């Protein structure tokens, strides 16, 4: 190996050295990753045959392993809620861009046949589903309805569905054309002047004519059919597809080819170059006509450009059954081997002519807009046309890179042959013979002073026109010999990235600073200076370093970078960083990186242009400069093995995230039905809300945030999570909001909301609290009423007591005193001074006064509060019997039987008074030998019997014979007042038997009185 | 000498209390010009004995078991409008006095008065005069003229005095509780009292109700 040094003055390149260096080159190409950075770059590209393809597409394929029930996809439609409906031979699918929901015969009985051949979304929001053999099904507002023979549909094979401008639904079947009248199907053909037709395709033209194709080609216009003939035999002309394009050309695909009726033309002309069954015709929004064929892939026609698209490059199968463009301008292609989505992206790969193996290394944006793409050959892209370019005199020289200096001279860095300056006339070769440090050029830079810096595989050369080369190698202080990047900062310092460390050259002297020290072992492949003077170092495996204000900040995948392998950092006019690396290209605003530098908690979210749907390897190159550039329009370019990657800056703004939908709500892991509102019973711990976007293009860039109003104070950044979980929500009403946006378009937000009601435990419900309040109120009211009732009872008791007292007073004291008074008055009136006192009257008076005192005492006794023992009936009766027996001298026997119980005071008193009355009556009037008192305590009542063996009387004349039984009425009244019964049995000479029954139960009023 | 002794005033004593009758009879019989013709314990008995003895004066207690004294007076006066009655009672309520005088009693004596008062009353009434002691006159004078209660109101008042609730009164009389309330409020107004207790007390005092 030659060690070039700045003192090598030789102008002669030895052959051996050349050969060696060629061998080296091969070796390096094969093994050295600096040259071949095999990166998986996941673009799938349409290979344009004639020119750059009209727009870039990203490709994504779904097959049975991705969720399709069967591989054959034959119909598409999109409903207003943005769902894509897919008709397969295995059923109907609803697709939100990521997840399929299958409707088939098993879960939807209305779908009698799983093979869905035609789909239509009509203006009323209905989805019409035409099946192969199972008739027509309508899906509206979540319900399926089947149409069959009973509705007028004679044939179950529905091939075409169309809603005309008048809103009529037309149904084409294998046997007949029908249209809806009301809710019934009416057959249009099969009449005398219009024989039955088999319909396979329908289209409405701009005049309102209805084209119907199948066994024939017809146009129904203003109620009458016109038949159109196609060239060729009948068997070749079965129509499979019909389309009127925006230029009013009518295209008819048949089993043998494509025919077109140009505006104004009278007859169809076959389209050359297309032979075979044209099954699908579709014009996309950019005007391209897409032609799907059986067994022959697709063709596109855009103006005069004609493209063939075939398996396996693009299509999974060459049998294309349907082509559909959704409202996001994704193209959906139904094939016999799955369905394919082609999404336009701002990224496209410019395929270069006659470049069988595009082994490109660098790309340079010239000041006039020309792009120089260099690999084994040099290509010049000018005005969108890429062409091989030969610098005169360099026809066989392997070129590495191109650079134009300020004077307009081109510097062509070569692969082993030094650098060549082209400026009009003869090229100026500069090689090691002229002092160049190494003949393998990796980067070229013009100094502010006009001199040139040339970084090579093995050292740095500084070329000044007058002085020749000055070389910088490790002995001079260069960090490492293998150079990767060059940059002159605004202060004129030269920064040199190497495969092991960073060097800074200040006025020809290597300087050490924090950056060079900290990055002394780092492979620095890219250096970028921002407008603030900050330097950004892209490293081979350590991410990005920012050097600003003598501070080094490190960004890695930890901070959100797509990769730690950085090939190139480019900043466009909008201060967006475009970072290439083995995982592809990511886009990131410099502000976002700066913010992340200031706040270690922030993560950056780059847009990655590497999403792979089909693992088509595309190698991106780095390590030789320039390994990426911004052209004069601001577009960003990177070199790759498939051609330069072109990222368009004037991207058509993508529509907002179509819609985010709340798919499922789980309460404690169990799905609950949710129709804008979820009610969670008490005691449920966990709430999971699953949501997903309905986005038919790639969902990789979709981010979510959500908030539960009433619970979350702020939005919660859910990143790419599709689920929000809550545990132990307090009872209440909440609204769950989820919004989705694409990181490329963070301002375009779509949202969905769901009402969540967490039911409280019953003891926390308002009705329960209300009930409690009500109960408490009722209780208070009841207590009040009870109190009032008690007072009333007490009042009644007082009243009764007062009444009783009055009666007692009248019956005893007043009556007795009045009687005694009358007797005394009588004594006073009859007695004369000196004559003896009328003894009889005196005796009467004495007895009366005594009796009155007795009665009065008893009346007063009843007023006193007495101890329970005094309340006992038995002892009181015994005492009474004893007393009266002593007074009268007549034995009074008192017998008590049964289990004694305590009567209330009032009843006891009344009973005692009655007993006394009865005993007195017997003793005073009946002249008995003995009086017997029987007290029997029964279960429910106490019975008092007073029996004498005296004279007796006729009980039937009790009322007229007041003489002896004046107290009977009073006794009866007393008995009644305590709710008892009174019996009297007597006959002259047979004694008297008085029975009093007093119930054990006492009245409330009596109780109240007792308690008073 | 055989002087035709003057006709003695025959008195019928009506009182349910036998001892009372003994005393009264003794007082009357002690007078030479009076004699007790008969004694009755009830109103019905009084009517019967009146027919039998045709006394000059009937001494009538107002409180009798069964038929009241006033009713007995009315019953006897229906057939014998000139009969003289002296009420001897414990009642001194204005209503009792009023009712008794209304029925035709011409004297009204309260039990417990000196025996002279009784004799004076009997004499005075027998002579065709009236006998109302000052206490009775005063009580009568205090009677509010518009305190007349209807029959139904009296019944309500009576039941009220016996401690019946409005509900009980309504049940007893077969009328609604609201009607009872209405009656009670009229009673309170007529008796110029504020509540039921006072109404009962006033009714008892005035003899509108007896126990």
Question: What is the N-to-C order of secondary-structure elements of chain B (H for helix, E for strand)?
Answer: EHEHEHEHEHHHHHH
Largest binding interface between chains: A-B, 39 and 38 residues
According to CATH, the homologous superfamily of the domain at 15-20 and 351-647 in chain A is YVTN repeat-like/Quinoprotein amine dehydrogenase
CATH homologous superfamily of the largest domain in chain B - what is it? Response regulator
Number of helices of chain B: 10
How would you describe the overall organization of this protein?
- The complex is a heterodimer of chains A (1012) and B (211).
- Chain A is 18% helix and 38% strand.
- Chain A is of the alpha+beta class and 1012 residues long.
- Among the domains of chain A are: 303 residues, Methylamine Dehydrogenase, Chain H (7 Propeller), CATH 2.130.10; 106 residues, Immunoglobulins (Immunoglobulin-like, Sandwich); 100 residues; 138 residues, Histidine kinase-like ATPase, C-terminal domain (Heat Shock Protein 90, 2-Layer Sandwich), CATH 3.30.565.
- In chain A, strands 59-65-64-61-62 form a 5-stranded mixed beta sheet, with no helix packed on it. A 5-stranded mixed beta sheet of chain A has the order 66-67-68-70-69, with helices on one face. A 4-stranded antiparallel beta sheet of chain A has the order 1-28-27-26, with no helix packed on it.
- Chain B is elongated and about 65 Å long.
- In chain B, helix 3 links the parallel strand 3 and strand 4.
- Chain B is an alpha/beta fold and 211 residues long.
- The longest helix of chain B is centred in the C-terminal third of the chain and has 14 residues.
- The mean pLDDT of chain B is 84.
- In chain B, helix 4 packs across helix 6 and helix 7 crosses helix 10.
- Chain B folds into 2 domains: 133 residues, Rossmann fold; 62 residues, Orthogonal Bundle (Arc Repressor Mutant, subunit A), CATH 1.10.10.10.
- Chain B has 10 helices and 5 strands, in the order βαβαβαβαβαααααα.
- The interface between A and B is large, with 39 and 38 residues.
């Amino acid at each position: 190996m030659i060690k070039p040094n700045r003192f090598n003055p030789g102008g002669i390149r030895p052959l051996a050295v050349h050969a060696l260096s060629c061998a080296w080159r091969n070796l390096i190409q094969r093994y050295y990753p600096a040259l071949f950075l095999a990166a998986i770059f996941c673009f799938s590209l349409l290979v344009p045959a004639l020119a750059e393809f009209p727009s870039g597409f990203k490709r994504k394929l779904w097959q049975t392993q991705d969720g399709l029930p069967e591989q054959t996809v034959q119909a598409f439609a999109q409903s207003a809620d943005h769902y894509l409906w897919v008709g397969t031979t295995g059923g109907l699918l609803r697709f939100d861009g990521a997840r399929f929901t299958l409707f088939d015969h098993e879960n939807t009985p209305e779908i009698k046949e799983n093979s869905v051949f035609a789909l239509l979304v009509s203006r009323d929001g209905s989805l019409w589903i035409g099946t192969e053999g199972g008739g027509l099904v309508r899906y509206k507002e979540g319900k399926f309805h089947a149409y069959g023979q009973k509705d007028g549909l004679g044939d179950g094979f529905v091939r075409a569905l169309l809603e005309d401008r008048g809103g009529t639904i037309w149904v084409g079947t294998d046997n007949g054309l029908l249209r809806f009248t009301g809710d019934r199907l009416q057959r249009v053909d099969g009449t005398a002047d219009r024989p039955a037709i088999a319909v396979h395709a329908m289209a409405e033209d701009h005049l309102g004519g209805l084209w119907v194709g199948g066994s024939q080609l017809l146009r129904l216009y203003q109620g009458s059919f016109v038949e159109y003939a196609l060239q060729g035999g009948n068997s070749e002309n079965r129509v499979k597809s019909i389309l009127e394009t925006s230029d009013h050309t009518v295209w008819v695909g048949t089993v043998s080819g494509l025919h077109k009726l140009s505006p104004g033309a009278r007859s169809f002309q076959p389209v050359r170059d297309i032979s075979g069954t044209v099954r699908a015709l579709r014009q996309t929004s950019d005007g391209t006509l897409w032609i799907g064929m059986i067994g022959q892939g697709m063709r596109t026609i855009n103006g005069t450009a004609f493209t063939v698209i075939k398996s396996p490059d693009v299509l999974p199968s060459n049998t294309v059954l349907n082509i559909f463009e959704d409202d996001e301008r994704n193209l959906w292609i139904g094939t016999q081997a799955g369905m394919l989505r082609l999404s336009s992206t701002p990224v496209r790969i410019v395929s270069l002519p006659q470049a069988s193996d595009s082994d490109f290394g660098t790309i340079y944006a010239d000041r006039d807009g020309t792009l120089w793409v260099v690999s084994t050959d040099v290509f010049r892209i000018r005005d969108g046309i890429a062409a091989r370019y030969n610098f005169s005199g360099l026809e066989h020289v392997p070129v590495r890179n191109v650079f134009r200096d300020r004077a307009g001279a081109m510097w062509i860095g070569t692969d082993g042959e030094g650098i060549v300056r082209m400026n009009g006339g003869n090229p100026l070769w500069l090689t090691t013979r002229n002092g160049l440090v190494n003949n393998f050029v990796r980067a070229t830079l013009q100094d502010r002073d006009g001199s040139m810096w040339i970084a090579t595989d093995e050292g740095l050369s500084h070329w000044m026109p007058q002085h020749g080369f000055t070389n910088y190698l490790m002995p001079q202080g260069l960090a490492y010999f293998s150079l990767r990047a060059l940059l002159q900062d605004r202060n004129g310092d030269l920064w040199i990235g190497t495969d092991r460390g960073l060097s800074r050259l200040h006025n020809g002297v290597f300087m050490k600073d924090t950056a060079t020290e900290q990055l002394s072992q780092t492979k620095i492949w890219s250096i970028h200076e921002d407008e603030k003077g900050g330097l950004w170092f892209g490293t081979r495996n350590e991410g990005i370093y920012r050097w600003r204000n003598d501070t080094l900040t490190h960004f890695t995948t930890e901070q959100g970078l797509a990769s730690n392998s950085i090939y190139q950092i480019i900043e466009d006019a909008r201060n967006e960083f475009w970072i290439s690396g083995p995982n592809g290209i990511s886009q990131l605003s410099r502000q976002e990186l700066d913010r992340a530098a200031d706040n270690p908690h922030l993560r950056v979210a780059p847009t990655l242009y590497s999403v792979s749907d089909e693992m088509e390897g595309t190698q991106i190159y780095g390590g030789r400069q320039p390994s990426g550039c911004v052209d004069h329009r601001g577009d960003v370019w990177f070199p790759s093995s498939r051609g330069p990657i072109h990222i368009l800056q004037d991207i058509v703004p993508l529509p907002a995230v179509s819609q985010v939908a709340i798919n499922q709500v789980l309460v404690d892991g169990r799905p609950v039905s949710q129709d804008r509102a979820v009610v969670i019973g008490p005691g449920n711990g966990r709430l999971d809300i699953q949501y997903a976007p309905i986005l038919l293009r790639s969902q990789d860039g979709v981010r979510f945030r959500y908030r539960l109003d009433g619970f979350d104070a702020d939005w919660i950044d859910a990143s790419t999570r599709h689920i929000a979980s809550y545990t132990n929500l307090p009872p209440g009403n909440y609204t769950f909001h989820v919004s989705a946006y694409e990181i490329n378009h963070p301002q375009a937000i779509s949202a969905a909301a769901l009402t969540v009601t967490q039911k409280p435990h019953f003891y926390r419900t308002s009705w329960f609290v209300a009930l409690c309040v009500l109960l408490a109120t009722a209780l208070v009211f009841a207590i009040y009423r009870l109190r009032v009732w008690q007072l009333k009872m007490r009042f009644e008791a007082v009243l009764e007591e007062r009444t009783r007292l009055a009666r007692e007073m009248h019956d005893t004291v007043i009556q007795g005193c009045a009687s005694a008074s009358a007797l005394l008055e009588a004594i006073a009136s009859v007695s004369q001074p000196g004559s003896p006192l009328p003894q009889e009257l005196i005796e009467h008076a004495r007895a009366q006064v005594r009796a009155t005192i007795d009665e009065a005492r008893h009346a007063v006794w009843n007023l006193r509060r007495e101890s329970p023992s005094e309340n006992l009936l038995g002892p009181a009766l015994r005492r009474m019997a004893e007393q009266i027996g002593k007074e009268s001298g007549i034995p009074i026997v008192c017998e008590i039987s049964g289990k004694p119980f305590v009567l209330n005071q009032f009843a006891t008193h009344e009973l005692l008074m009655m007993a006394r009355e009865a005993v007195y009556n017997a003793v005073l009037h009946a002249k008995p030998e003995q009086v017997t008192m029987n007290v029997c305590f029964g279960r429910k009542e106490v019975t008092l019997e007073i029996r004498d063996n005296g004279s007796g009387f006729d009980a039937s004349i009790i009322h007229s014979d007041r003489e002896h039984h004046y107290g009977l009425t009073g006794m009866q009244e007393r008995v009644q007042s305590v709710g008892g019964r009174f019996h009297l049995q007597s006959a002259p000479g047979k004694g008297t038997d008085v029975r009093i029954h007093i119930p054990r139960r006492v009245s409330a009023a009596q109780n109240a009185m007792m308690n008073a | 000498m055989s002087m035709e002794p003057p006709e003695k005033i025959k008195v019928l004593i009506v009182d349910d209390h036998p001892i009372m009758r003994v005393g009264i009879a003794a007082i009357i019989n002690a007078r030479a010009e009076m004699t007790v013709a008969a004694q009755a314990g009830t109103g019905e008995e009084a009517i019967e004995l009146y027919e039998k003895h045709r006394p000059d004066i009937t001494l009538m207690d107002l409180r009798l078991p069964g038929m009241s004294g006033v009713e007995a007076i009315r019953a006897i006066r229906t057939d014998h409008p000139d009969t003289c009655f002296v009420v001897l009672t414990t009642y001194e309520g204005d209503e009792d006095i009023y009712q008794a005088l209304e029925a035709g009693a011409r004297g009204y004596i309260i039990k417990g008065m000196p025996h002279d008062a009784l004799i004076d009353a009997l004499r005075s009434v027998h002579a065709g005069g009236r006998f109302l002691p000052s206490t009775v006159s005063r009580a009568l004078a205090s009677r509010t003229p518009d305190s007349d209660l209807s029959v139904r109101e009296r019944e309500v008042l009576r039941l009220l005095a016996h401690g019946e609730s409005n509900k009980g009164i309504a049940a007893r009389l077969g009328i609604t509780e609201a009607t009872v309330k209405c009656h009670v409020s009229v009673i309170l107004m007529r008796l110029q009292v504020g509540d039921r207790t006072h109404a009962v007390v006033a009714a008892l005092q005035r003899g509108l109700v007896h126990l």
